[in-house]
Automatic annotation (TrEMBL):
It comes from Microbulbifer aggregans. Pathway: Cofactor biosynthesis; ubiquinone biosynthesis [regulation]. GO terms for cellular component: plasma membrane. It is a single-pass membrane protein. SUPFAM superfamilies: Protein kinase-like (PK-like). This is Probable protein kinase UbiB. Residues 88-336 form the ABC1 atypical kinase-like domain. The chain crosses the membrane at residues 517-535. One of its GO terms (biological process) is regulation of ubiquinone biosynthetic process. The keyword Cell membrane applies.
Length: 536
């Protein structure tokens, strides 16, 4: 770990007393001793969330972006901290225009004057990873040029290494640190930010999203100019939309706000279930509304660096889970989690079902229009994590996107009832899955592969049978080994039980008053505990 950077982090950590943010349940003695002098340090008069926000801002853009990602994880952090992280400012000074043009010329191998009829040296926007300039192509088309910051990949790799070390420390040395899943969160961040370092990938995502919505009244995606696109430079059509957060402008042109909010939800479900390809960075800065047809408003999406998709099984289980949840069929929800493999097969269904009910019932007490859909999903995953559900990156992305969409929708139209839009969509999707047309589509899609494999089928069956015959002795050996382990295990338990009973007996003989002082209920409980501990 680079020493200078580590010292900076330590200084900021101490200045904002971030030690007080870590869960303070039983810390090992040596950590308590080591940290005790920290109590002498003054604590800034700021809330815990504000201290974390200031510290991240001081540590620079990569940490700011990390904080922004944390703000989309209300399943891990308390609400006051999430609220404060929502205000993180990604204010980064633009890099000099000479450097910018040099980078464009190097990537596109031509002088800037021949590439563009006009190039605005002052950027339209400047963020931590890239900056965006306006330009005009030789044929007169208005475009924007996105350029990666020079040397940004090195900075990111260095800061990612630091974050990974900090995450491992938290997991190892902070009690309850495991629950925060720091290592997974940093891995998630690595995935996100690395996706932003290759503009060809971003351009490919934009092209796919555009194809998926071609001819649709719901969403427009600007056209990529592939001739002008490389890993560090990307050129695309310039759009002229209203930022979705500019409610005043939207109202001024009489936008149908209810339809706009509902269309946001529709776009989300279409992407997740129909296209299986969703824009996963739907923060308001990346969404605009077309100025045309405000009575039938259409979205415009930019910044397609981060996208997500689900496996066919995940799609299916997610749809069924949502339907079962809103039907309050918690048994089904619990069973679906096991069937999908999200939680282990030996999860006690009854206990799991009761836990889900305890979390969901208070939420469903409210009228449907007031229920936060994203919250329901987050609470569900939170509960499932208590039952050892591993973090599924694709579901985390989905949960974050849904949170953004819902937040945005409610800002546009506070009475938005997400379920009203989502429910028919999911029901239709479930029905369509078994529709002959869909099955025919599947056959068409995978048919050639099956036909290809078909002549090998008899040989495959024969090999499988042959292999199982060859493996018979090994399987038998494993069986007997298990049997003898069981026997050994049983005798070990019996020996342990005898030792404990002997010890208790000896204590009773040596100090009978001790035994007499125990109330009968206490004795019964001790015996029950003993049985439980010793039960093989
Ligand atoms: N096609 C476009 N037409 C018009 N303006 C654009 C276009 N693409 C980007 N911009 C402007 O540039 C800003 C930054 O673009 P973009 O979000 O793609 O960059 P970024 O570096 O990924 O930013 P961030 O990381 O903050 O999301 C946008 O908010 C928008 O104002």
């Amino acid at each position: 770990m680079p020493a200078g950077r580590s010292l900076t982090i330590a200084r900021v950590f101490l200045r904002y007393r971030l030690d007080t943010l870590l869960p303070s349940a039983e810390r090992p003695l040596w950590i308590r001793l080591l940290w005790s002098p920290l109590r002498l340090l003054p604590q800034p008069k700021l809330s815990r969330g504000a201290r974390l926000r200031r510290a991240l801002e001081e540590l620079g853009p990569i940490f700011v972006k990390f904080g922004q990602l944390l703000s989309t994880r209300p399943d891990l952090l308390p609400p006051d901290v999430v609220e404060e992280l929502n205000h993180l400012q990604d204010n980064v000074a633009p890099f000099p225009s000479d450097q910018c043009t040099a980078r464009i010329e190097a990537a596109l191998e031509a002088p800037i004057d021949t590439l563009f009829a006009q190039f605005d040296r002052t950027p339209l926007a400047s963020a931590s990873v890239a900056q965006v300039h306006g330009a005009v192509l030789p044929d007169g088309e208005s475009v924007v040029v996105k350029v990666l910051r020079p040397g940004i990949d090195k900075v990111i790799q260095q800061d990612l290494r630091l974050l990974a070390v900090i995450a491992r420390w938290i997991r190892r040395y902070v009690p309850d640190g495991r629950r925060l899943r720091p290592v997974e969160v940093v891995e998630d961040y690595r995935h996100t930010i690395e996706g932003e370092l290759d503009l060809v990938r971003e351009a490919a995502n934009a092209t796919e999203l555009k194809r998926n919505f071609s001819g649709s009244p719901l969403l427009y995606v600007p056209e990529v100019h592939w001739d002008y696109t490389r890993e560090t430079v990307m050129v695309m059509e310039r759009i002229d939309g209203i930022p979705v957060t500019d409610l005043e402008q939207l109202r001024a042109q009489n936008t149908n706000m209810q339809l706009l909010a509902e269309r946001g939800v529709e776009i989300f479900f279409k992407q997740v279930f129909e296209h299986n390809f969703f824009h996963a960075d739907m923060h308001p800065g990346n969404i605009f509304v077309s100025r045309q047809h405000p009575e039938r408003p259409k979205y415009i999406a930019i910044d397609t660096a981060i996208v997500g998709s689900l496996s066919r099984e995940d799609q299916y289980y997610l749809a069924r889970n949502l339907l079962a949840m809103f039907r309050r069929d918690y048994r089904m929800v619990a069973e679906l989690h096991v069937q999908s493999g999200w939680v282990r097969a030996d999860t006690p269904i009854n206990t799991f079902e009761a836990a889900i009910r305890a979390v969901c019932e208070p939420i469903f007490e409210k009228p449907l229009g007031e229920i936060s859909f994203a919250r329901v999903l987050i609470s569900l995953f939170q509960t499932a994590r208590r039952f050892d559900m591993a973090v599924q990156p694709q579901l985390v992305l989905l949960q974050k996107t849904l949170l953004n969409i819902e937040g945005l929708g409610r800002q546009l139209y506070p009475e938005l009832d997400l379920w009203k839009t989502a429910h028919p969509f999911l029901e239709r999707w479930m029905r369509d899955r078994i529709h002959p047309r869909t099955i025919l589509g599947e056959i068409k899609r995978y048919g050639p592969e099956w036909l290809e494999k078909f002549p090998q089928l008899p040989q495959m069956v024969y090999s499988a049978l042959d292999q199982s015959r060859e493996m018979a002795p090994q399987l038998q050996a494993i069986g007997s080994a298990l049997e003898s382990t069981n026997r050994r295990g049983r005798s070990r338990y019996l020996r342990r039980a005898a030792a404990v009973l002997l010890a208790v007996g000896a204590a009773a003989v040596a100090a009978p008053q001790w035994l007499a002082a125990l109330p009968p209920a206490g004795i019964a409980m001790a015996v029950a505990a003993l049985v439980l501990v010793l039960w093989p």
